[in-house]
TrEMBL record:
The active site is at residue 129. Its EC number is 3.7.1.2. InterPro entries: Fumarylacetoacetase, Fumarylacetoacetase-like_C, Fumarylacetoacetase_C_sf, Fumarylacetoacetase_N, Fumarylacetoacetase_N_sf. The keyword Calcium applies. It comes from Paroceanicella profunda. This is fumarylacetoacetase. Substrate binds at residues 124, 138, 236, 240, 346.
């Protein structure tokens, strides 16, 4: 697929994340205005509420003046496709309909959480990540849990802790116990980490008690975001047996402000990797289930002039697709809601520079990484800013997500004091 030329000149440059091929959806405001829906072309934000008000675009019902994308998602796949087609026609090179009243500089926009998160489930779908973590904690011979090659493993997280890119994250307090300590202590996490992930957003609900096929699940997905599942590795390590992550994951999850639609990513589909063991039939998928999306993580210490790219990987490094995860989520009768967010799990490639967490990059803290500043990191320090980026690369254009960034601030002392 080649670049679709736009009347917005900045959308035609090869380095923009936002050509006419993309048309992601988000929620923005400017000073003195209420949040409403937008898309973006190059360095211009497009006010969808303005275009909707006089019928230049039509989703079948008024949806774009709302401060969240949920009303638009609830219109369903036919409306999603219709609005995308209308926007591509309206902003094509040479299109005659006036649009200047709906355009503003992207730089003046304040971005908000793009949708109301109904529920949040995080998976564990990268085999290399699972192997790395399992090797560190259980040894190479027992790295993968016995169910891993048969089932998309996940846990239910906290929708209330999902925040938009640019939101600062407080270092959490909690119980932690080192291997050489006899009893746990309480205080700020000492092993703060990130997890480079993608998030899939459910746009069509399913009723409780109704399982769905993987191919049906594919049609329920509205789009994707970059996702940073901030993790406290010491709190997590102490609490996780026998029920899994809890406080070590509950304090913050950052997502990118733009939702890139499934339609925009369609040209970049790639197959899931070969199955090492046959999956049960309910997890069979007809379409290639993954996307060729280049991903990277930048770490910028407080006071540093620039960031260091510490990881480069790709979304295709997953073992299970988002549709397989969604089908598995619903197979036991769990009803899915509009705005459900499914995290992919940390995405790690085969080489060390493609690991998606500091836990892996520093191998549990034993091999600190060196930044461009000369500083070293095993885990995140206060003031560090972490930025996730991702883009699918076409012929002379890119379909990107923008940035998903967050900064770690010092923990807030509680009335109990630290131990």
């Amino acid at each position: 697929m080649t670049l679709l030329k736009s009347r917005v000149e900045s959308a035609n440059t090869p380095d923009t994340d936002f050509p006419l091929n993309n048309l992601p959806f988000g929620i923005f405001s400017t000073e003195g205005t209420a949040p409403r829906a937008a898309t973006v072309l190059g360095d211009r934000i497009v006010d969808l509420a303005v275009l909707e008000a006089d019928g230049r675009i039509d989703a079948g019902a008024p949806v774009f003046a709302a401060g969240e994308l949920n009303p638009f998602m609830e219109r369903g796949p036919a409306a999603w496709a219709a609005v995308r087609a209308q926007l591509q026609a309206l902003f094509a090179e040479g299109a005659p309909t006036p649009v200047d009243d709906a355009l503003s500089p992207l730089a003046i926009a304040r971005m908000h959480l793009p949708f109301r998160v109904a529920e949040y489930t995080d998976f564990y779908a990268s085999k290399r990540h699972a192997m790395n973590v399992g090797t560190m904690f259980r040894g190479a011979e027992n790295a993968l849990p016995p169910n891993w090659l048969h089932i998309p493993i996940g846990y239910n997280g906290r929708a209330s802790s999902v925040v938009v890119s640019g939101t600062d994250i407080l270092r959490p307090n909690g119980q932690r116990k080192g291997p050489d300590e006899e009893v746990p202590s309480f205080g700020p996490s000492r092993r703060m980490d990130i997890e480079l992930e993608m998030g899939a957003i459910v746009g069509v609900p399913t009723p409780m008690g109704k399982p769905i096929t993987v191919d049906e699940a594919e049609e329920l997905i509205f789009g994707y975001v970059l996702l940073n599942d901030w993790s406290s590795r010491d709190i997590q390590a102490w609490e996780y047996a026998p029920l899994g992550p809890f406080q070590g994951k509950a304090f913050g999850t950052s997502i990118s402000p733009w939702v890139v639609t499934r339609a925009a990513l369609e040209p970049f589909r790639v197959p899931v990797p070969p199955r090492e063991k046959p999956l049960l039939p309910y997890l069979d998928q007809t379409l290639p289930g993954l996307y060729d999306i280049a991903l990277e993580v930048g770490l910028q210490p407080e006071g540093a002039a620039a960031e260091t790219i510490v990881s480069r990987t790709n979304y295709r490094n997953l073992y299970y697709s988002a549709a397989q995860q969604l089908a598995h989520h619903a197979v036991g009768g769990c009803g899915m809601r509009v705005g459900d967010l499914l995290g992919s799990g940390t995405i790690s490639g085969e080489e060390k520079g493609s690991f998606g967490s500091l836990l892996e990059l520093s191998w549990g803290g034993k091999e600190p990484i060196t930044l461009d500043t000369g500083e070293t990191r095993s885990f995140i320090e206060d003031g560090d800013r972490l930025t996730l980026r991702g883009a699918a690369l076409g012929e002379g254009f890119r379909v990107g997500f923008g940035a998903c960034t967050g900064r770690i601030l010092p923990a807030v002392p509680g009335p109990w004091g630290d131990a």
